[in-house]
Design brief:
Helix content of chain B: 55-70%
Distance between the termini of chain A: 74 Å
CATH topology of the largest domain in chain A: Rieske Iron-sulfur Protein
Strand order of the largest sheet of chain B: 1-3
CATH architecture of the largest domain in chain A: 3-layer Sandwich
Order of helices and strands of chain B: HHEHHHHHHHEHEHHHHEHHHHHHH
Distance between the termini of chain B: 99 Å
CATH superfamily of the largest domain in chain A: Rieske [2Fe-2S] iron-sulphur domain
Oligomer: heterodimer
Shape of chain A: elongated
Largest sheet of chain A: 6 strands, antiparallel
CATH architecture of the largest domain in chain B: Up-down Bundle
Strand content of chain B: under 5%
Radius of gyration of chain A: 30 Å
Number of helices of chain A: 1
Number of strands of chain B: 4
CATH class of the largest domain in chain A: Mainly Beta
C-alpha cells in the first residue's frame, strides 16, 4: 500500500478525490441509516416512558355488597389488561362504606413500599406485612415508616353500583389525594 | 499409531497456521504473572467468572422450558420443578450459582480492596469490576422476578414504589420499569429481556475489558508492607518483578485457581442437591394478600434499611444512597491511587471492611428475622402463656381476651410469643404505671397506633388491669415517682 514518493498525492491542495468522497459518503450514509434504525428503537423502548396512564371507571359491584360502617375486600380487573396477563390482572382493594353513598376505597398498596395491607376488623387497623406500617380505619397513618395515609381511589355511585377510577399501580408519584 | 499421530499433528499445524492458536494462547493464558500472585487470595476472580459460566449454561437450559408470560410462567416453574426431568436440579444449580456468584464476587472485591490492587495502574480494572457488581446485582434482582411468584410480584411493587419517589419523573420511571402503568405481562417480558439478553451481554463485554486489563497492566503482585506505589516508578518496578520472578499463568500459576474452581462447583452442586431450588412460593396473584413478601438474601439488607430508616430521610437515602456509594467507589482509585498497598499498614481500609461487613451482616440478619413486621396471625394463633392467666381476677382475664382479640399480640409478644414490633408485654406492669398504660393504650405514640376510638372505656379498664398484672414474680407494680409514699429505692 506504500505510495511511491515520486508520485505526487492526488489530494494535494483541497481537491476532493473519489476516495475521499466515498469515505465521507460512507460515513454520512451510515449516520443517516443509524438514525433511521436507532430512533425507532429508542422510541419503542421509551414509549412506556412517555405514555401517560389512562384511568378508567371500573365497576366494583352493587353498593349492597358493602354494609354500612364496614370495610370489605373487593377485587376488580385491571382495565388495561392483556390476554396473557393471567391472574396478575386481578387487583384487590379495600372498600369502606361509611354510610349511604359515602365511601372510601383504599388501594391495597402500602404507601411505604407498596406491599399489600391487611384489614383487621376488631382493632380497626390496616397492617402491612413488610415493614410494619399501620393505618387507621379512615386510611390515616397510624404507625410505622409510611410517609402518608393510604392511597384512595376516586369513586362514584351510579344506579346503586359502585365505580372506582383505576388502572395504574398507586405509588407516591401518581397519587395526590 | 505413528501415522495416526503424524496425521493429527498435521491437522493441528494446519489449523494453527490459519488461526494462530499457539500465539493466542501464549499471549493470553501463557502471559507472565508475578510468582507472588499465585496465592489462595488470588483465586476469587476466576471463581466468580466460573460462577457466571455456570449461570450462562444453566440459564440457557432453563430458558428452553420457561415461558416468560404472566399467565404461564408460574405453571412452567411448577412444571420445571416437579415434572421436567432434572428440572429441579437445574433450577437449584441456577439459584445456588447466583448466591455463590454474588458472595464470591463480594469476597473478590474485598480482597482487591484490602490488597490495594485497585491502585495505580489498575483503575479501569476496579471500575469495570464495580460495573460488573452492578450488573450482577441487576441479574440477581431480575432473576428473582423470573421466579414469578408472590414474592416476585410484590418485589416488583417495592421496586416501583422506590422509583415512584423520584421527583418529577417518578411516574414515567415507574411506567418505564413496569412496561405500563401496572405490574402485568409486559413487566415480566421486559425483565426477561433484561435478564437473559441485556445484562449477561453487558457482563460478557465488561469481563473482556476486565481481563484485557489483566493482560495489559498485569495482575498485581502480593503486597508487601512498606513497598509503596508511585506513579513514576511503578511500571518499571512491576516489569522488574516479572523479569525476576515472573511465571507463565498457565501452567505455573493456574493450579490454585483450578482447585478453587472445583471446590466452588462441588459446593454449588452440594447446596443444589441438599437444599434444592428456591420456591416458587404462592402464585403471583395480587388478590392473595395473605403474604409475607421478602427479597432474596442479597437484598435483605436493603429491606432492613427501608424498615429502620427515619421517614424524613427515606426517599433521599433510597434514591441517593446507591448513587453516592457508586461515585465514592469509582473515585477511590483516583483519590487513593498510590502509596501503601498492604492491609497491614492501612488501618482505615481494614476498619472500613469490618464496618461494612458487620453492618451488612447485621442488616441481613434483621431483614431475615424482620422484627418490625407484625405477626399477622399471632392474635388468633398464639396462646397466652399459662403463668399470665393463672390466679388472675375476672377483670384481668377479660383484659387478656381483649389484648388477644384487638390484635395487640400481632406486634407485642408475651414472654417471647407473638410479634416483635413493640416491646414484649411480659413485664410491662413493672415498667409502666397504670396511668402511663392508660395513656399509651388510648393515645398510642412511639410507633403504636392510638386505640382510643376502638376500645370502650370498659375494655381499656380491663386491658390496663391485665397489663398491670404482667410482672415477673415478686416485682411490684410500677409506681409514679412523683406521687408521695413511694417505696425507698432498693
Amino acid at each position: 500500500m506504500n505510495e511511491e514518493p515520486s508520485k505526487p498525492c492526488a489530494c494535494e491542495g483541497k481537491k476532493t478525490t473519489r476516495r475521499d468522497f466515498l469515505l465521507a459518503a460512507g460515513f454520512g450514509l451510515n449516520v443517516i441509516a443509524g438514525a433511521a434504525i436507532g430512533i425507532p428503537l429508542v422510541g419503542y423502548v421509551l414509549s412506556a416512558f412517555f405514555k401517560p396512564s389512562q384511568l378508567e371507571w371500573i365497576k366494583l359491584g352493587p353498593v349492597g355488597n358493602f354494609p354500612e360502617g364496614k370495610t370489605r375486600f373487593a377485587t376488580y380487573e385491571n382495565p388495561v389488561r392483556r390476554e396473557w396477563d393471567g391472574e396478575t390482572a386481578n387487583i384487590p382493594c379495600w372498600v369502606r362504606r361509611i354510610k349511604g353513598d359515602e365511601f372510601q376505597v383504599f388501594a391495597i398498596n402500602c404507601t411505604h413500599l407498596g406491599c399489600p395491607v391487611r384489614w383487621f376488623e376488631e382493632s380497626k387497623l390496616f397492617m402491612c406485612p413488610c415493614h410494619g406500617g399501620a393505618f387507621y380505619e379512615d386510611g390515616g397513618h397510624a404507625a410505622g415508616p409510611p410517609p402518608r395515609g393510604l392511597y384512595t381511589y376516586e369513586f362514584k355511585v351510579e344506579n346503586g353500583v359502585l365505580f372506582i377510577k383505576g388502572g395504574d399501580l398507586p405509588n407516591l408519584s401518581n397519587q395526590n389525594i | 499409531m505413528n501415522k495416526l499421530l503424524n496425521a493429527a499433528r498435521g491437522v493441528f499445524l494446519w489449523v494453527d497456521d490459519r488461526l494462530h492458536l499457539v500465539k493466542l494462547f501464549e499471549s493470553t493464558a501463557g502471559h507472565h504473572v508475578p510468582q507472588s500472585s499465585g496465592s489462595w487470595f488470588y483465586v476469587l476472580g476466576s471463581a466468580t467468572l466460573l460462577c457466571f459460566m455456570i449461570q450462562l449454561a444453566t440459564g440457557i437450559m432453563l430458558a428452553m422450558v420457561y415461558v416468560p408470560s404472566a399467565a404461564e410462567s408460574y405453571t412452567t416453574l411448577q412444571y420445571l420443578t416437579y415434572q421436567q426431568d432434572l428440572g429441579w436440579f437445574l433450577r437449584a444449580v441456577h439459584y445456588w450459582g447466583s448466591n455463590f456468584m454474588v458472595g464470591i464476587m463480594l469476597l473478590h472485591m474485598t480482597q482487591v480492596f484490602l490488597f490495594g490492587a485497585y491502585k495505580y495502574p489498575r483503575e479501569i480494572t476496579w471500575i469495570t469490576g464495580l460495573a460488573l457488581l452492578g450488573l450482577t446485582l441487576g441479574l440477581a434482582f431480575t432473576g428473582q422476578v423470573m421466579r414469578f411468584d408472590e414474592d416476585a410480584y410484590w418485589g416488583l411493587g417495592i421496586g416501583a414504589a422506590i422509583l415512584g419517589r423520584v421527583p418529577f419523573l417518578g411516574e414515567q420511571m415507574v411506567n418505564m420499569m413496569l412496561g405500563g402503568p401496572i405490574i402485568a405481562s409486559e413487566t415480566l417480558s421486559r425483565f426477561f429481556a433484561l435478564h437473559v439478553f441485556v445484562l449477561p451481554g453487558g457482563v460478557l463485554a465488561l469481563v473482556s475489558i476486565h481481563l484485557r486489563m489483566v493482560l495489559t497492566k498485569g495482575i498485581s503482585e502480593y503486597p508487601q508492607p512498606g513497598v509503596l506505589v508511585r506513579r513514576e516508578t511503578y511500571d518499571k518496578e512491576y516489569a522488574a518483578i516479572l523479569k525476576k520472578e515472573g511465571v507463565p499463568f498457565f501452567p505455573k500459576a493456574i493450579s490454585k485457581d483450578l482447585v478453587a474452581s472445583a471446590v466452588v462447583i462441588f459446593a454449588i452442586l452440594a447446596c443444589a442437591v441438599i437444599f434444592g431450588p428456591k420456591g416458587p412460593t404462592g402464585p403471583p396473584d395480587p388478590v392473595q394478600i395473605d403474604t409475607l413478601p421478602r427479597p432474596d438474601f442479597y437484598f435483605l439488607w436493603i429491606f432492613a434499611i427501608a424498615a429502620l430508616m427515619p421517614d424524613w430521610m427515606e426517599s433521599v437515602a433510597l434514591l441517593g444512597g446507591p448513587v453516592l456509594i457508586g461515585l465514592l467507589l469509582i473515585a477511590l482509585p483516583f483519590f487513593n491511587g498510590t502509596g501503601e498497598r498492604s492491609w497491614r499498614r492501612r488501618p482505615v481500609a481494614v476498619m472500613t471492611v469490618i464496618l461494612v461487613y458487620v453492618a451488612l451482616g447485621l442488616l441481613t440478619y434483621l431483614g431475615h428475622t424482620s422484627p418490625w413486621s407484625p405477626d399477622m396471625d399471632a392474635w388468633k394463633g398464639d396462646p397466652t402463656p399459662e403463668q399470665f392467666i393463672r390466679g388472675r381476677s375476672p377483670l384481668e382475664l377479660q383484659g387478656s381476651v381483649v389484648v388477644q382479640f384487638m390484635q395487640c399480640r400481632n406486634c407485642h409478644a408475651i414472654d417471647g410469643i407473638g410479634g416483635h414490633r413493640g416491646p414484649d408485654l411480659a413485664d410491662v406492669g413493672a415498667r409502666l404505671t397504670k396511668d402511663q398504660l392508660i395513656r399509651q393504650v388510648i393515645q398510642g405514640g412511639g410507633n403504636m397506633p392510638a386505640y382510643g376510638k376502638n376500645l370502650s372505656p370498659d375494655q381499656v379498664d380491663a386491658v390496663v388491669a391485665f397489663m398491670v398484672s404482667l410482672r415477673p414474680p415478686g416485682i411490684p407494680a410500677a409506681r409514679d415517682s412523683s406521687q408521695p409514699g413511694r417505696p425507698p429505692m432498693e
